[in-house]
């Protein structure tokens, strides 16, 4: 569990850190409130997949790279299906314990599998916008989703808005410490945490490969 959360939190922390060059950002975001930060987190998830697959429409090599990433992370063998496979459709809810924060992000993978692929000059290609769906929702909607196992597999609940913003200012995160200090609470099927951590790690590896000189 710690390994999965470490991978996810490291990626979230790194992305937040990239966006906090302005040292006044924590004060600004706290004044604006949870919905604004939630919009940013939702965009982080969405744009991450767009970025690593951004060149898939340019040529066959990039299209194949995008397909490999998708197959490695989202295709699951399932003999009970007609074509012997299905897609990972994990559903997550990111919240804070402080209700007044009103920070709630619903994240769904492969929500509409039929829309993921499209025909291109290089054959079957992937629309990265359809791999992940993010929604910023209000407290009542989040409460309703959290109580419905068909809508949410795992809830990742941070202590408050400040605890999320503070991730951006730290060089490293003590994951065990966050859990023990009750800064983070997990509710639901924690097995999905391993999957989320694996996806985050693969994204990081792809980003690192892109940075290497050619």
Binned strand content: 15-25%
| N-C termini distance | 36 Å
* Average pLDDT: 78
Helical percentage: 40-55%
User: Which structural category do the helix and sheet elements fall into?
Assistant: alpha+beta
How many domains in all? 1
Number of DSSP-assigned strands: 9
SSE order, as H and E? HHHHEEEEEEEHEHHEH
Number of helices: 8
Unreliable spans are 1-7, 14-26
- How are the strands of the biggest sheet laid out side by side? 7-4-3-8-9
Please provide a written account of the structure.
The structure is a single chain. The protein is an alpha+beta fold and 214 residues long. The chain is globular, with a radius of gyration of 18 Å. The model is unreliable at 1-7 and 14-26 (pLDDT under 50). The protein has one domain. Helix 1 (2-18) crosses helix 8. It has helices at 2-18, 25-32, 34-52, 60-74, 139-146, 161-165, 175-180, 191-211; strands spanning 75-77, 85-87, 91-96, 104-109, 117-120, 123-126, 132-136, 154-158, 184-188. 46% of the residues lie in helices and 19% in strands.
Write the layout of secondary structure elements.
Layout: H1 2-18, H2 25-32, H3 34-52, H4 60-74, E1 75-77, E2 85-87, E3 91-96, E4 104-109, E5 117-120, E6 123-126, E7 132-136, H5 139-146, E8 154-158, H6 161-165, H7 175-180, E9 184-188, H8 191-211
Parallel strand pairs: 3-8
Antiparallel strand pairs: 1-2, 3-4, 4-7, 5-6, 8-9
């Amino acid at each position: 569990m710690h390994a999965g959360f470490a991978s996810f939190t490291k990626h979230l922390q790194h992305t937040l850190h990239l966006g906090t060059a302005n040292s006044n950002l924590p004060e600004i975001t706290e004044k604006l409130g949870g919905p604004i930060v939630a919009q940013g987190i939702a965009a982080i998830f969405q744009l991450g997949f767009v970025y690593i697959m951004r060149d898939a429409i340019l040529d066959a090599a990039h299209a194949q790279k995008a397909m490999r990433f998708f197959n490695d992370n989202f295709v699951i063998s399932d003999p009970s299906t007609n074509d012997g496979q299905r897609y990972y459709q994990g559903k997550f809810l990111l919240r804070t314990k402080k209700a007044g924060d009103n920070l709630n992000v619903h994240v769904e993978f492969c929500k509409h599998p039929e829309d993921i692929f499209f025909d291109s000059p290089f054959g079957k290609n992937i629309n990265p916008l359809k791999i992940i769906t993010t929604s910023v929702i209000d407290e009542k909607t989040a409460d309703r989703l959290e109580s419905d196992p068909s809508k949410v597999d795992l809830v990742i609940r941070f202590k408050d808005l400040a605890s999320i913003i503070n991730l951006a200012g730290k060089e490293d995160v003590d994951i065990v410490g966050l859990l023990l200090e009750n800064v983070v609470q997990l509710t639901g099927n924690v097995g999905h945490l391993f999957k989320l951590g694996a996806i985050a790690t693969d994204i990081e590896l792809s980003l690192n490969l892109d940075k290497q000189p050619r």
